[in-house]
Design a protein that fits this description.
Elements lengths: L8 H7 L4 H8 L16 H33 L2 E3 L2 E3 L2 H12 L18 H14 L1 H8 L3 H8 L2 H12 L4 E4 L15 E4 L5 E11 L5 E7 L10 E7 L5 E6 L10 E14 L5 H38 L1 E2 L2 E2 L4 H38 L6 H40 L9 H9 L9 H13 L2 H10 L8 H24 L2 H31 L5 H34 L11
Parallel strand pairs: 3-6
Antiparallel strand pairs: 1-2, 4-5, 5-9, 6-7, 7-9, 8-9, 10-11
Helix pairs in contact: 1-17, 2-10, 3-4, 3-5, 5-6, 5-9, 5-10, 7-9, 9-10, 9-11, 9-12, 10-11, 10-16, 10-17, 11-12, 11-13, 13-16, 14-16, 15-16, 15-17, 16-17
Length: 578
C-alpha cells in the first residue's frame, strides 16, 4: 500500500537533524512523563521512534483515504442549511479517520490527551496532509489554535477546551471582517462585558476558515471609544453556547472542501482569553505566526504533489517517439520544480526547529525560572523564528504557485482539463500566497531582519558548517551571492529613506531567501551524505543535486535583484507612482 511518509525520504532527513536531540530533551523535560503515561518515550531514540510511527500512520491515512477523497470533496464541497455547515461526505470520512487514529491535538501535553509532539514532526504531518488534500489540511491543521489556548488561556480554560480538541473537535480563528482584512486594527465586532463578568459578542466576521467549528478564537473590540489595536481582546466562543450562525459559505476558486464562512454574532456568550487589550498586539500575532508556519507546510505539500504529478506525466507522455521527459526544456522545468520544493522544505524545517526551541523554553519558564544561559538561548531562537517564519511563508507559497503553474505546463492542453489533478492543484495553490498574510505582508515582516542583519547572522552560522567536497563549488557561488546581497543591503541602509527602503524591500527579502535557502541546502545535504541510514543518505544525495540547480537559479535571481537595487535611485521612485 502507498504511504506518503515512507515514499518521501526527505522527511526522515529533516527529522534526524542534530538539533532534534536538544528539542526532544527540552520538550520531554528529560522524559519525566515516562512514569505517568505508558505511551510516553523513555529516551531520545524512543521519542524519535514514536514520531516516525505516527508519521507512518499519517502517511497511510493520507495515501489511502484522504487523497482518494480529494477529487470528490473538490466536486461536492460543504453545504449550508439553517445557519449550520455540513462537510462534504469525503471530508467527514477524513475527519473520522484522523480522530480514530488519534491525530488531533498532536502537539498538546499528554495531561490534556495530546501526544506532546514538538512542532517539527507536527509540521511534517501538515506537509503530508497538504499533499493529500490541500483544503482538508485547513480543517485538520486548525488544531494548532489550541497552542494559543495553551499559551494564553487560564488553567481552567485549558482543562475544559484542549481535551476536546485532542478528542477531535475542530477550531477556527475568527479574525477578519468585511471592512477589516489585513488591517486587523479596524476590527469592530463588539464585545460587551456583562454585570456578572461574562461577555457577549455582536457583529459580523468574514472569510473565516472552518467558520462553523466547535471552538472559536475571536478577535473583538472590548474597549469603548477605541479604534486601534489597543482596544481589541481575544475571546473563546463555544458553539455549544449558541449565538453564532453562518450566513453564507464563500464560493471559492480552490480549497473547496474547506468551508470559508461569513458569521453573524448575536449576543453570543464568550469568555476572555488572556488579558484585555492584548488581543491583537500579543495573542493574534502569536496565533498568526503559527498559522503562517502551517501555510508554509501547506505550500511545501502542494509543491510536492505538483512536482510528482508533473514528473509522472513527463515520464508517461510520449511525443515524437519518446517520453517528453527526454526533452531538455521539460527536464529543466522539472529540475527547477524539484529545486524549489527542496529549498522550501529546508527552510520550513529550519524554521520549525527554531520555533520548537524557543517554545520549549517558554513552556519550561511557566514552571521555573530559566537560567541566564537558557533565557539567552530562548531569545536567540525566538529571533531566528521571527525572521524565518515570514521568509518561509512568503517564499514557499510563491514557489508553490510557480510549481503548480509548471505542473500544468508539463501537462500541456491536458493540464487545462479536469481529467487531471493538476487543474485542482493549480486552483488550490493560489490561496497560499494570500491568506494568513499576503506575500507583500510577509515582506513587511521580513525586511526588519534584513536591515538588522539577522539573515546575515544566520548565513554566518551556516558558513561554519563542513561542506561536502562535491558541493564546494556551490559554496563558492553562495559566497558571491551573499556578498551581492550584503552590498545591496548596505546601499539601502546608507540612503536611509523609509519610502526607498519599503520600495526595495521585496528585492532584498528575495535575495535573503535565495541565500539562506541555498546555504541550508548545501549544509543539510553535506551533513547526511554519509549517514548510516540508507534512506537518509539517498535523500541527502537527492538534495545535493537539487542544491546545484537551486544555487544556479539563486545566482541569477540575486544578480537581477542586485542590479535593480543598484540601478534605481530614490529620485526615480516617482516613475512608479500611480
Amino acid at each position: 500500500m502507498p504511504n506518503f511518509y515512507n515514499d518521501n525520504k526527505a522527511l526522515k532527513l529533516h527529522l534526524q537533524h542534530p538539533l532534534m536531540k536538544k528539542i526532544v530533551s527540552l520538550k520531554e523535560r528529560d522524559f519525566a512523563d515516562a512514569d505517568k503515561y505508558d505511551y510516553a518515550p523513555v529516551d531520545f531514540a524512543d521519542a524519535m521512534d514514536n514520531y516516525e510511527r505516527v508519521l507512518e500512520i499519517v502517511g497511510d491515512l493520507c495515501a489511502n483515504i484522504i487523497a482518494d477523497n480529494a477529487e470528490g470533496v473538490d466536486h461536492d464541497g460543504p453545504s449550508l442549511a439553517n445557519g449550520r455547515v455540513t462537510y462534504a461526505e469525503g471530508t467527514q470520512r477524513n475527519l473520522d479517520a484522523c480522530r480514530k487514529a488519534g491525530l488531533m491535538g498532536m502537539s498538546m501535553p499528554r495531561r490534556f490527551g495530546g501526544l506532546n509532539f514538538p512542532i517539527t514532526p507536527y509540521i511534517m504531518a501538515a506537509d503530508i496532509v497538504s499533499r493529500a488534500d490541500t483544503g482538508f489540511e485547513n480543517l485538520w491543521g486548525l488544531q494548532d489554535c489550541a497552542e494559543t489556548l495553551y499559551e494564553f488561556g487560564t488553567e481552567d480554560q485549558r482543562e475544559r477546551f484542549i481535551p476536546r480538541v485532542c478528542q477531535g473537535e475542530t477550531m477556527s480563528m475568527d479574525l477578519t471582517e468585511p471592512d477589516a482584512g489585513s488591517d486587523l486594527q479596524s476590527v469592530m465586532l463588539k464585545a460587551t462585558e456583562q454585570p456578572d463578568g461574562t461577555w457577549v459578542l455582536n457583529g459580523v466576521k468574514r472569510f473565516i476558515t472552518n467558520g462553523d467549528s466547535d471552538i472559536h478564537l475571536v478577535l473583538a473590540r472590548s474597549e469603548d471609544g477605541t479604534k486601534d489595536g489597543r482596544g481589541l481582546s481575544m475571546f473563546i466562543y463555544d458553539k455549544r453556547q449558541g449565538g453564532v450562525n453562518v450566513r453564507r459559505i464563500e464560493n471559492k476558486m480552490g480549497i473547496k472542501g474547506s468551508p470559508t464562512c461569513e458569521l453573524v454574532y448575536k449576543n453570543a456568550k464568550a469568555e476572555l482569553c488572556g488579558s484585555r487589550r492584548l488581543g491583537l498586539i500579543k495573542y493574534v500575532m502569536a496565533l498568526m505566526n503559527g498559522a503562517r508556519l502551517g501555510i508554509a507546510a501547506q505550500s511545501v505539500g502542494v509543491s510536492e504533489l505538483a512536482y510528482r504529478e508533473a514528473d509522472a506525466y513527463a515520464h508517461d507522455r510520449k511525443q515524437f517517439g519518446k517520453a517528453i521527459v527526454e526533452f531538455p526544456a521539460v527536464r529543466e522545468i522539472l529540475s527547477n520544480m524539484k529545486a524549489k520544493l527542496d529549498a522550501s522544505r529546508c527552510l520550513l524545517y529550519e524554521t520549525s526547529r527554531y520555533v520548537d526551541m524557543y517554545k520549549a523554553y517558554e513552556d519550561i519558564a511557566r514552571d521555573r525560572s530559566l537560567t541566564p544561559d537558557e533565557r539567552k538561548e530562548m531569545k536567540l531562537y525566538n529571533k531566528y523564528a521571527d525572521a524565518c517564519t515570514p521568509l518561509a511563508k512568503g517564499l514557499s507559497s510563491e514557489y508553490c504557485n510557480q510549481n503548480a503553474y509548471d505542473c500544468i505546463q508539463i501537462h500541456g492542453g491536458s493540464g487545462f482539463m479536469k481529467d487531471y489533478a493538476c487543474e485542482r492543484i493549480y486552483r488550490d495553490a493560489r490561496i497560499t500566497s494570500i491568506y494568513e498574510g499576503t506575500t507583500q505582508l510577509q515582506v513587511v515582516a521580513a525586511i526588519r531582519h534584513v536591515m538588522t542583519g539577522t539573515y546575515l547572522e544566520l548565513i554566518e552560522n551556516y558558513r561554519k558548517e563542513e561542506i561536502a567536497a562535491e558541493l564546494r563549488p556551490q559554496k563558492a557561488l553562495l559566497e558571491e551571492m551573499t556578498a551581492k546581497y550584503a552590498e545591496a543591503v548596505a546601499k539601502v541602509k546608507e540612503i536611509n529613506e523609509p519610502e526607498y527602503t519599503d520600495f526595495m524591500a521585496r528585492h532584498l527579502v528575495e535575495m535573503a531567501g535565495d541565500c539562506v535557502m541555498g546555504w541550508l541546502m548545501i549544509t543539510d545535504a553535506s551533513r547526511s551524505l554519509a549517514a548510516e541510514d540508507a534512506d537518509v543518505a539517498a535523500a541527502a544525495a537527492e538534495l545535493a543535486r537539487s542544491a546545484k540547480v537551486y544555487v544556479n537559479l539563486g545566482m541569477a535571481n540575486v544578480a537581477r535583484n542586485a542590479a535593480f537595487v543598484a540601478g534605481v535611485a530614490p529620485a526615480e521612485l516617482a516613475a512608479y507612482k500611480a
